Each structure stands twice: as C-alpha cells, then as structure tokens.
C-alpha cells in the first residue's frame, strides 16, 4: 500500500511444533492527511505497532495494530481476522474492525474523527484489492491450493480452540446485505401519493428503511409531535448510505443538539447583528430551474477577520445556522408551491477577490467548525453548489477545505474559474433562468446581496482573538515539546506574521529564491503594492545562484546569465500599480531554482515603493486540485477586492 513506507520486524516467535507464529512489527506510514494538518502537527510519517498471530492448527490469522505516534492524543486500534467458515471449511471468512478515540488534537477532534473514518473506509477497499492481487499472483504461479497443516505425531494438542459459529455470530452481529439483523420483519410501504408529492422516487427497499427508521424513532420518543419529518429522516438515511443504525445514531445526536441549543426557535429568536446586515455579502435570491431556493455568498468580498472580530466564532456559527434554518423553510415553501418534491437548496459562491488572506488561521478554523456542524445536523440539504470566478489561489483553499466535506456533497460542486468568464453565464443558464442570473455575473437581475467590503474597526468586539490564538498555539507547542516532537506549528496565528514588507528605491529589485526539489509542486504568492508601482516576474534558473550583494543589481544583470540559456521567464511580467493586490500560482515542473522578482521603476512623492508579500509551496503529494484551474489574476485594492480580509 502506498502509505506504508517501511516495516521493521521487532520479534518473530514460532511454536516448537510449528502450529503457531507470532510476529511483531513497527510500521512507518506516510501521513495521509490534509495539507493544513501536516503543517499543524509538523510530521510527515507516523508509527504503528502491529501484532500478527498465525494459528495453523485452528486455521486463523489475527492481526492487531495500535498507533505509537500521538498515542497521548489519539487511540487507534484495528483488528483483522481470517478464519475458516464454520459451515464450509473450504471457505475463508474475513472481518475487520477498528476504533478511533481522539482525546485532544489541536482543536480539530471531530474533524479528525470524520476524516479518519473516511480514510479507513478507503483503506479497507484498498485492502480488498491487495488480497485479490496476491491471490492472482499465486494463481499465475500455478498455486490454487495449499495443503492444510498437520501436527507432528508426538505434538501436544493445541491450547487454542476455534470459536464456534454461534460465538462468531454473536460477536459480529451477522446481518444481511442491507445491514438489517436477520429475523427482522419487513415494514409496510409508505403511501405512494405521499412519496411522489413529498419525497420523490424511492425504491421499495429505501421505503422500507425509511419506515424502519421512523419506527425506531417512535420507540425512542414519547412525544410524537417532536418526531422529525419524513423529509428529514430521508436526508439522514441518504447521508449514511441507507444504513439504518448509523442514521439513527446521528439523527438522535442531532435532535439532542437541536434541543440543547433551542434550534427550533432560532428563526424567531435570532436578531441579526448590524454588522451582518451592513457588511455580510450573502442573501437569498429566487429559485433555480429545479425549484431549489438559491443562496448567494460573495465569499471573495467577505472580510473574514472583520466578521470574526465583530461577532466572534459563535456569532458566525449562529448566522450560518440561521441561514440553514431559513433554507429548510424555503425548501418546504417551494415544494408546497410547486406540488413536487424539493428537498434541498442551491448555493452560488462568488470567489472574485479571494486571496491567501482568506486562509487566515482563525478564519479557517471557524470555517471548518461551521462545516462540521452543518454536515452533522443538515445533511443532504445542499442540492448544488455553483462556484464562480474561482481565482488562482482557489485550488489551495479547496485542498484544505474539501477534506472536511462529505463525498456526496463534494460531488455536487460545479466550478467556473477566471478563465471560464466567457462561458460562465452560458454555463449558469443550465441551472438558473437567464433573467435571474445576477448582474455581477453578466446577467440582468439585481440582487439584495450586500457587496461586503472592509468592516470598520470601530465595530470590532473580539479584540482578544489573536491573544487567544497565540495562547492556544503556545500550549500546543508546549505539549508537543513535552512529548519530544518538533514544534513546527505550521500556521501563524495571524496573517501579519506570514507576510513580509520591503521598501524599494527607484531602480532597486527584490528577489526571493526558491530551490525546488519536488517536481509538480505548486508555488503560490500573494502580494500588495502598498505604495508606488512595481514590475513582477517569475523566473526559472538552471544554474547555481551566487549570493546577492547589491539590492540594485539583479541576478540576471550578471555577465554569466543569459535568458533562454540558463534562465527562463516562467510568468509574463505584470505591471502592478499603487494599491493593487496580486495572487498567483505556478506548477514547478523542474528541479531548478525559481526566482520571484520585483522591480521598482519609479518612486512617488510619498517615498520608496512598498511591497507586502507572502509565498508558499504546496508539495506535489499534498496538492490534489486540478492543475489546469490555476490562472493568474490581480485586482485593485478596493473595498471589493481580494484584500478586504486584511
């Protein structure tokens, strides 16, 4: 398996009669986690201890594994079992179980649990492929059966007896292919007219599972009026791939959450803060062609830092929940109006103006918290997500966030990048009537959505946000030090710690050298021209670069540098003016030096040109986005530009 880098045998013991073998290993695994977590924990590999117990006499193989890395924060236990079928000894049975208990993981416990279960499922499927691969390898060698082990004549009887089939059924909870325990009786079907009008097309098995879950909820709830609607039950079933027991568990948790947080009264009780009314760039906008209510979010125009400092993480979560509750209400109204099932709503996300500053750590943390809460309590309410005007920085943001979005929800995203501007309106018309396409996307329809922009600091209330983040980071570093691990926290608590500021006199240059050793890694940059004008170019150099001695002399002014011979212009020179913001990304296809090059052609009356910049390298292993979606772009530093979250 690709994630397994190495296995070291710690001990290997074989019984005297050869009937049993116990092998212990220490395995090194690559960290298959989102980019943000790798930066957070500061490690690329983790260690697991594995114990394999082979019992030839009873024809069983038991494999157990526990994590050694981060064992004080996470407990991972996995058991795999191979054994002869109790009714047919020529068949081999296999079962696999695992537990995951995250005690403390830098504030991302629930997200890590969800990610862990998702990746465990993927690994299970990969395990099946590997088993089939080796079986086919044996067949290719002409091996189709192996003689059963026979004990030596003078060997003592084995002390380990095989479990009975009854014990195995009790331990494993034998179920049919639909996940229902044997012996359960099929339920009656729902009324066909009700299904057609309110739920859409369902198979008989899906109808049966819907009734089964409804009956389970009735057994748990004395007050029948508090039971969720069939539409809600259906959403939770679909979100759990029609596994009734799983859907019951998460639905009961969600109902308790709603009760504990008075969510049923949110629409009546919630008072929208003035800062949201005046500066939040989101709102409802008519319906799509399938009758879904449309919510527009101009994310690139959102002042993430300003919102968090004005209403806090809890306030932003409550706003998001209020939007979800409005969505449920509008879905119901649309279904009743049309007389056909409408079970979800559409989200139109405008990313014009998105920059690296939107990845400010508290903002990312708040976003992940909101995604986790919404995914848990409003599953399958998002029918379609139209992402428009995706800039060059978007693949990085998507790489970080998409890991926390349910696979089914993720499949509903449709993207239109900056390069798709000419065909975007035509693409949107597949889903939204032409007369309803917003004017800022080339349509004619006016919207009530605020354009966003910078939130005045006079509205800030969360002045301790950075201090809280720094205190949390210090505690994490202390904890990591106590366990002898590196203290690379990966993300600064404030984007001002990520950006560097330089001043350039007329004719001076500023160059940053990136020595690339990872082919297909992605170099990203984000910078502001605070004062004056600048020329920006990205170069690739095939020879060693000397130490820079003079800020007025570029590497490429030296005698032994010749363009097209030992250095190449990878990105066309951009002329960047006063107050402009530039974001970009470039796939580094060579193991060469790359140079970010800024040149100051002039100085204004205010003094030297001032540059505020940030760059980062996303490794080829971490980057999962579409390389073709990387497009250059720069915009003016206005209230609706990419700089509004500063």
Automatic annotation (TrEMBL):
Query: SUPFAM superfamilies under this entry?
Result: CRAL/TRIO domain (SSF52087), CRAL/TRIO N-terminal domain (SSF46938), Supernatant protein factor (SPF), C-terminal domain (SSF101576)
Q: What Pfam families does the entry give?
A: CRAL_TRIO, CRAL_TRIO_N, PRELI
Q: Domain CRAL-TRIO: where?
A: 272-449
Q: Name one GO cellular component term.
A: cytoplasm
Q: Can you give the residue ranges of the PRELI/MSF1 domain?
A: 1-143
Q: Which InterPro entries match?
A: CRAL-TRIO_dom, CRAL-TRIO_dom_sf, CRAL/TRIO_N_dom, CRAL/TRIO_N_dom_sf, GOLD_dom_sf, PRELI/MSF1_dom, SEC14/CRAL-TRIO_domain
List the residue ranges of the region (Disordered): 467-494
PANTHER family tied to this protein: PROTEIN REAL-TIME, SEC14 RELATED PROTEIN
Output this protein's name.
Answer: CRAL-TRIO domain-containing protein
Name the species this protein comes from: Glossina palpalis gambiensis
